[in-house]
Amino acid sequence: MQNQEWKTYIDSRNTGNFDVIRASWVGDYNEPSTFLTLLTSTHSGNISRFNNPAYDKVLAQASTENTVKARNADYNAAEKILMEQAPIAPIYQYTNGRLIKPWLKGYPINNPEDVAYSRTMYIVKH
């Protein structure tokens, strides 16, 4: 491992001049494809340069499914390919800690996008 200045890191990443590289991604919408499509062979964010036609095919199929059940089955198949091929090694998960008073209600504690609007919150008598 070697530390690089940002410009050098970007050049190394863009040219594939690495054996192992650190990168991150934060899902920008609440749906598995925000992460899974990153590893399709033509995605500009595919830093690992993973190329698997079966993976591309199952994700293309998922995007045309009409039911959540069918789409999730395709996503499970895609994840199985990733587990077998291991083009990436997720080693860190971002977390956001919150200290919420018990009298604050309406805070979306289970919101995977971590979006909270004050209009949904209220204070109960305490």
Automatic annotation (TrEMBL):
GO biological process, one term: peptide transport
Coiled coil feature spans: none
Entry GO MF terms: peptide transmembrane transporter activity
GO CC, any one term: outer membrane-bounded periplasmic space
InterPro entries: SBP_5
Record's protein name: Periplasmic Murein Peptide-Binding Protein MppA
Source species: Escherichia coli ISC7
